[in-house]
Design brief:
The complex is a heterodimer of chains A (about 160) and B (about 800). With about 160 residues, chain A is an alpha+beta fold. Chain A has 2 domains: about 5-80, Beta-grasp domain (Ubiquitin-like (UB roll), Roll), CATH 3.10.20.30; about 85-165, DNA polymerase, domain 1 (Orthogonal Bundle). Helix content of chain A is about 35%, strand content about 15%. Chain A has a 5-stranded mixed beta sheet, sandwiched between helices. The longest helix of chain A has 15 residues, at about 140-155. Chain A is globular and about 50 Å long. By secondary structure, chain B is an alpha+beta fold. Among the domains of chain B are: about 415-420 and about 430-475 and about 640-810, Aldehyde oxidase/xanthine dehydrogenase, molybdopterin binding domain (Aldehyde Oxidoreductase, domain 4, 2-Layer Sandwich); about 480-630, 2-Layer Sandwich (Aldehyde Oxidoreductase, domain 4). In chain B, the strands form 7 sheets. A 7-stranded mixed beta sheet of chain B has the order 3-5-1-12-9-10-11. In chain B, strands 7-15-14-13-8 form a 5-stranded mixed beta sheet. Chain B has a 4-stranded mixed beta sheet with strand order 18-26-27-28, with helices on both faces. In chain B, helix 15 packs across helix 16 (about 605-615). Classes of the chains: A alpha+beta (about 160), B alpha+beta (about 800). At the A-B interface, helix 2, helix 3, helix 4 and helix 5 of A face helix 1 and helix 17 of B.
C-alpha cells in the first residue's frame, strides 16, 4: 500500500508514491536525494535530522512523509542562496562551530528556528534553545559563539553584510 | 573534495605566542567547513551506487545462550529479500582480528556471525540482504532463532570467582591475561611510609557515541577483481589489509575509502565483523551493499570504553613526599577481543606515574571476560583511567596529610631542568613545566579566593568545592616498537605543474581539521597560500600506506611526515632555482611566492615548478617532477600536560552539582591553529565531564543492556555545560621538528578527576571521601546521607533549613 504525497522541499515541489511508514528523513535522503539531513538516532533524541516544516524545526526521523504532504520543508541545502552562505552558516564557519560536521545541519536548522523567535539570544537562551540537538565534538562552546555571531549578522541589513564580505 | 565558497584570510585573533609563521599559529577558519555547513559533504550513508541493496543484522537478545536452531524461511519469503546468511554460510570469512600479542593472552575465536553460542546482547547471528532498508530490517526480525539461555556474568569480581559462568568454556576461566608493571623497591617504600592512602574506584563503562553511527558500503567488480569498501573508519589502510585477510582477496584487489567520517573517539579505530560481512555480501550477491548501524545497534555492538575496577594505594612520608604507589586493576574485556582490547589497560599501567616523582610502583592488571560488548579505545584509551586513579589518590593523599592539594602536587612534580624525565614506569617524558601550568590555572581560577569562599560557605551550609587536576598524557603514538601495527605515518607532497599543491596523508581525520592545519604548515614551508594546498586522505588507492588518526598522533606524526616531505621538495626547488638563476642551492630562499638568490635575483615559484615538469632546462641528474614522500618514524612519544581547576556547588538537599567555573590550562607544544586547539580542548572537557557526571553503560545482572538509547545514556547537552575558560603554556616537544605534541585527548583526560575532586572536596565536611561515577544526584545525595560526619553550620538565615537537611540525611 502506498500513498501519493506532494512535498515542497527547498522551494521545489516533489511528488512521490510512498509507504505510509516512510520517515520524512528517508523521503528527503532517498526520494529527494538531499543527504545533508543526517540520521543519528532514529528516535528524535539527537537532532541530526532537524529540518524546518513550514518554518518550524522538527526532527524528521519522527515525522512521517505522509504527515508532510502538502507542506513546505527547508533543509540545510536550502539555506544558502548560490554562493552567498546564510548568516548561520557563516557563523558556524567563523567560530569553528563544527568538527566532524555530522550534527551540523541539524544544529544549523535548529538555530534557524531559535533565531527566528529570539533574534538576540543570551548564551543561556542559546544553550536551552539547542539542547535537543546533540554534538559530541565541540562541547557546544563554539556552537554558542556561532549562533551569537549569526544573530549579530542577522540584526544587520543584508546589503551591509554582503558589502562587508 | 568541494572547494570553499570563499578564501579564508588569516584573522587577527592569534591567541598569543604560539605562532611562528605566516599561517602556522593563526586562527584560520577550516577549509573543510563549506561543504559541511552546506550539507553537501558525503558520509558513508550518503553514498548511492547503481543497483545498491541494503543489509541488516539479526542480533542476539541474550547475553549468553546456546543457539539450537536458526530458521530463515520466513525472512527469505518476504518480497524484496535477496538472501539471508548465518555462520553456516560464512565459514571462510573472518575471524574478527585482535592485533595484540602478550605472553599469556587468551584470544578466543571471534566469529563474524555467532557460531553455536552467543556471548553478549547484540552479537550478530544472521544477516539479511534486501532491496531496501525497510525490507532488510523487517526481514532481520523474521529470522527465527531458538536460544537456550545460559547463565551470564557481568560483574568483574564475580567473573573471576570459582563458580562463575564461563564466557568461553574452553578457556576454563574468565581471565584473559595478567600484566604486571613493577619498578623500584615498592615493599620498602610502603614499609617506611608514614601514611598509606587507599581507595577503590570504579572507572565505569562508557559508550563513545560518535554522532555518525558506523556505516559500510561495498562494491565488488569481478572482471577487474576490485573490491571497494567505503567505511566510517579512523584507519582505512589497516582496514584494507584486514579486509583482504577477512574475505580472502589479495590486498592489491582491495581499496578502502573513509569518506567524511562523523566522529570516532576511538570507536572507529577498529576492524569490526560487519566490515568483513558487508564486502563479502557484495561479492556473494554481485550487488553493491550498504549497511548503516542504527543508534541502538551502536549502543549494543560498537565498542565501549573504560570499565575497570581499580584499587589504588599511595605511600607517603610525613611531609607529603611520595614513596611508592600500588594499583590492582581488573579490566573488563567484554566477551571477545576487538582490535586493541587487551592493550588499553596496559596504557593505564604506563601512565600511572602521572606528572609526579614516584620512586617505586607496582601495577597489576587482570583482563576479564564478561558477557558484554568488547571494550577498546575510547578517547584517551587507558590514560583517562590512569589519570583518574592518580589524580584522585593525590587528592586523597593531600587531604589525609592536611596539605593543600595544589601544594601537594607541586611538591611532587619533577623540575623543568629534570627533563627529559624518565618515569618509574619506564617512559621518557619529552618536555614539561608542570609548575607553570599549575600556577597559571590557579591564578586564572582565583584559587585562593575560591578557598576562602569555600570555608566561609561551609559556615552557612553552602557546599562549594574546588577541584584540581594536573595531568600528563602520552601522545603522538608512537614509536613503532611500542605499537601493535607500526607507529609511523606517511606524508606525500606533490606540487602540481600549475603550482597548486596536493598533500596526501596516511592519517585519516574525522573532525580534527587536518585539511586545514596540514595546509597551513605546507603553505608556510613553500611560501604559498593555504587555499592552494589540497589535503587528500582516507583513500587507500590515492594515498601511500598509512596508519590513521588516533592517540593524538595526526599532527605530531602525520604532520611531521608532511613537513619532512616538504623539506625534500624545498631542497629540490632550491637546486632548480639555483640552476635557473645561476646561483648555489644553499643561497636560495623560498617565500612570498618566489625563490630568491643571495644576489637578489628572483624567480616566481610557479616558473620553477613548471621548469621541473617541462624538464627542458634542468641540472644534470635532476629528477623531473615535484613529488616527495616521507614515512616518519618518531623517536619517542610526546607528553602534553596541563592543569584544570574547577569550582562547584553541591546542593546537599538534592545532590545536584552546579559547575560554577571551569579553567583549563593546557600545553600541547607549538600550536598550528589555536582555533582548532580550543575546539579539541572544549570538546574533550565536555566528554570528560560526561563521564564524571552523567554517562554510564549499564548491563543488568542477566547481561541485558539497560542503557540502549540516548534517552538512557546521557551524553552532555548544551545547557548542562558551563563556559570553559581556556589558556595555555607552550613547551615545544624536542621529538619532532615542529615542536608539536597533540591535543585530541587532553580535555577528556584532565576533566573527569577535576570534577570528582571538586565534588568530594565540597562534601569533605561530611567526611565524604569518594563517590563513584557518574556523580548522579542520587549518588551524591546518598553519599551525604550515609556519611560519617555532621558538619557544623553557623547561624544564618538559611541555617535552620540546612541543619534540618543535614539531620534528615543522618
Amino acid at each position: 500500500m502506498t500513498k501519493n504525497v506532494t512535498i515542497t522541499v527547498n522551494g521545489v515541489e516533489r511528488r512521490a508514491s510512498v509507504e505510509p511508514r516512510l520517515l520524512l528523513v528517508h523521503f528527503l535522503r532517498e526520494n529527494a536525494g538531499l543527504t545533508g539531513t543526517h540520521v543519528g538516532c532514529e528516535t528524535s533524541l539527537c537532532g541530526a535530522c532537524t529540518v524546518l516544516l513550514d518554518g518550524r524545526a522538527v526532527k524528521s526521523c519522527t515525522v512521517l512523509a505522509v504527515q508532510a504532504d502538502g507542506r513546505n520543508i527547508t533543509t540545510v541545502e536550502g539555506l544558502a542562496s548560490g554562493d552567498q552562505l546564510h548568516a548561520i552558516q557563516e557563523g558556524f564557519w567563523e567560530e569553528h562551530g563544527l568538527q566532524c560536521g555530522f550534527c551540523t545541519p541539524g544544529m544549523i536548522m535548529c538555530s534557524h528556528d531559535l533565531l527566528e523567535h529570539h533574534p538576540n539570544p543570551s548564551d543561556s537562551e542559546i544553550r536551552e534553545g539547542i539542547n535537543g540537538n546533540l554534538c559530541r565534538c565541540t562541547g557546544y562552546q563554539h556552537i554558542v559563539a556561532a549562533v551569537k555571531n549569526a544573530a549579530q549578522k542577522m540584526s544587520r541589513p543584508t546589503a551591509a553584510r554582503a558589502g562587508a564580505r | 573534495m568541494a572547494t570553499p565558497a570563499k578564501s579564508p584570510t588569516p584573522q587577527k585573533k592569534t591567541n598569543g605566542k604560539a605562532g611562528n609563521g605566516t599561517w602556522v599559529g593563526k586562527r584560520m577558519k577550516r577549509k573543510e567547513d563549506p561543504r559541511m555547513i552546506r550539507g553537501i559533504s558525503h558520509y558513508t550513508d550518503d553514498l548511492k551506487l547503481a543497483g545498491m541493496v541494503h543489509c541488516a543484522f539479526t542480533r542476539s537478545p541474550h547475553a549468553h545462550a546456546e543457539i539450537k536452531a536458526i530458521r530463515t524461511d520466513a525472512a527469505k519469503a518476504l518480497p524484496g529479500v535477496i538472501a539471508v546468511y548465518t555462520s553456516a554460510d560464512t565459514t571462510g570469512l573472518g575471524p574478527v582480528p585482535c592485533a595484540i600479542q602478550m605472553p599469556d593472552l587468551k584470544v578466543p575465536r571471534h566469529p563474524v556471525l555467532a557460531e553455536g553460542r552467543v556471548r553478549y546482547v547484540g552479537e550478530p547471528v544472521a544477516v539479511v540482504v534486501a532491496e531496501d532498508l525497510y525490507i532488510a530490517r523487517d526481514a532481520a526480525e523474521l529470522v527465527e532463532v531458538d536460544y537456550e539461555p545460559l547463565p551470564a556474568v557481568t560483574d568483574l569480581e564475580k567473573a573471576l570467582g570459582k563458580d562463575s559462568p564461563l564466557v568461553h568454556e574452553q578457556l576454563k576461566s574468565n581471565q584473559a591475561f595478567t600484566h604486571q608493571l613493577k619498578n623500584g623497591d615498592v615493599e620498602a617504600g610502603f614499609k617506611k611510609a608514614d601514611r598509606i592512602v587507599k581507595q577503590r574506584m570504579m572507572n565505569q563503562r562508557l559508550a563513545p557515541i560518535a554522532m555518525e553511527p558506523r556505516a559500510v558500503v561495498a562494491e565488488y567488480l569481478p572482471g577487474e577483481n576490485r573490491l571497494t569498501v567505503w567505511s566510517s573508519t579512523q584507519i582505512p589502510h589497516l582496514l584494507k589489509t584486514q579486509i583482504s585477510l577477512l574475505v580472502g582477496l589479495p590486498e592489491t584487489a582491495v581499496r578502502v575509502i573513509a569518506p567524511e567520517v562523523g566522529g570516532g573517539f576511538g570507536s572507529k579505530l577498529n576492524v569490526y565483523g560487519e566490515e568483513g560481512v558487508v564486502p563479502w555480501l557484495a561479492m556473494k550477491t554481485g550487488r553493491p551493499v550498504k549497511w548503516n548501524e542504527g543508534r541502538r545497534e551502536n549502543f549494543m555492538a560498537t565498542i565501549h570504553g573504560r570499565d575497570a575496577l581499580n584499587d589504588v594505594e599511595l605511600a607517603l612520608k610525613k611531609d607529603g613526599t611520595i614513596l611508592g604507589m600500588r594499583a590492582r586493576v581488573l579490566a573488563d574485556m567484554g566477551a571477545y577481543h576487538q582490535l586493541l582490547t587487551p592493550l588499553i589497560p596496559q596504557l593505564t599501567a604506563l601512565m600511572h606515574a602521572g606528572c609526579y616523582k614516584i620512586p617505586a610502583i607496582q601495577i597489576d592488571i587482570i583482563g576479564v571476560f564478561t558477557n558484554k560488548m568488547s571494550t577498546d579505545a575510547y578517547r584517551g584509551a587507558g590514560r583517562p583511567e590512569a589519570t583518574f586513579n592518580v589524580e584522585r589518590i593525590m587528592e586523597l593523599g593531600a587531604r589525609e596529610m592536611g596539605m593543600d592539594p595544589a601544594e601537594f602536587r607541586r611538591k611532587n612534580f619533577p623540575l623543568p631542568k629534570e627533563f627529559p624525565y624518565t618515569t618509574v614506569t619506564g617512559l621518557t617524558y619529552d618536555s614539561a613545566k608542570y609548575q607553570e601550568s599549575l600556577a597559571k590555572a590557579l591564578k586564572l581560577s582565583g584559587y585562593d579566593s575560591l578557598r576562602r569562599r569555600q570555608k566561609e560557605g561551609w559556615k552557612r551550609g553552602k557546599y562549594y568545592g574546588v577541584g584540581v587536576s594536573t595531568y600528563v598524557e602520552i601522545c603522538a603514538i608512537g614509536p613503532s616498537a611500542a605499537t601493535p601495527a607500526g607507529g609511523w605515518e606517511s606524508g606525500t607532497v606533490r606540487i602540481e605543474p600549475t603550482g597548486k599543491v596536493t598533500v596526501l596523508t596516511g592519517a585519516s581525520p574525522h573532525g580534527q581539521g587536518e585539511e586545514t592545519t596540514f595546509a597551513q604548515l605546507v603553505a608556510d614551508q613553500l611560501g604559498i597560500d593555504p587555499q592552494d594546498v589540497n589535503v587528500v586522505h582516507g583513500d587507500t588507492l590515492a594515498v601511500p600506506y598509512g596508519i590513521g588518526t588516533f592517540g593524538s598522533r595526526a599532527t605530531a606524526v602525520g604532520g611531521t611526515a608532511i613537513y619532512m616531505a616538504t623539506q625534500k621538495l624545498k631542497s629540490k626547488l632550491a637546486t632548480l632555482a639555483a640552476h635557473l638563476l645561476g646561483s648555489k642551492p644553499a643561497d636560495i630562499s623560498i617565500g612570498r611566492g618566489q625563490l630568491t638568490a643571495k644576489s637578489g635575483k628572483r624567480i616566481p615559484f610557479g616558473e620553477v615548478v613548471l621548469a621541473a615538469y617541462t624538464a627542458r632546462n634542468i641540472p644534470v641528474g635532476f629528477e623531473p617532477g615535484l613529488e616527495a614522500t616521507h614515512f616518519f618514524e618518531p623517536s619517542n612519544f610526546t607528553f602534553p600536560f596541563g592543569c584544570h581547576v574547577c569550582s562547584v556547588e553541591v546542593d546537599i538537599e538534592t545532590g545536584e552539582i552546579k559547575i560554577e567555573k571551569y579553567v583549563a590550562v593546557d600545553d600541547c607544544g607549538n600550536v598550528i591553529n589555536p582555533l582548532l586547539v580550543a575546539g579539541q580542548i572544549q570538546g574533550g572537557i565536555a566528554q570528560g565531564l560526561g563521564q564524571a557526571l552523567w554517562e554510564e553503560v549499564v548491563y543488568n545482572d542477566d547481561g541485558q543492556l539497560v542503557t540502549g538509547t540516548l534517552m538512557d545514556y546521557a551524553i552532555p547537552k548544551a545547557h548542562l555545560l558551563p563556559e570553559f575558560t581556556l589558556d595555555h603554556t607552550v613547551t615545544p616537544s624536542p621529538v619532532n621538528p615542529m615542536g608539536v605534541k597533540g591535543v585530541g585527548e587532553a580535555g577528556t583526560i584532565a576533566s573527569t578527576p577535576c570534577i570528582v575532586n571538586a565534588v568530594c572536596d565540597a562534601l569533605s565536611p561530611f567526611g565524604v571521601r569518594h563517590i563513584e561515577m557518574p556523580l548522579k544526584p542520587e549518588r551524591v545525595w546518598n553519599a551525604i546521607r550515609t556519611a560519617k560526619a555532621i558538619p557544623a553550620i553557623a547561624a544564618s538565615a538559611e541555617a535552620p533549613r540546612k541543619r534540618e537537611a543535614v539531620r534528615r540525611r543522618a
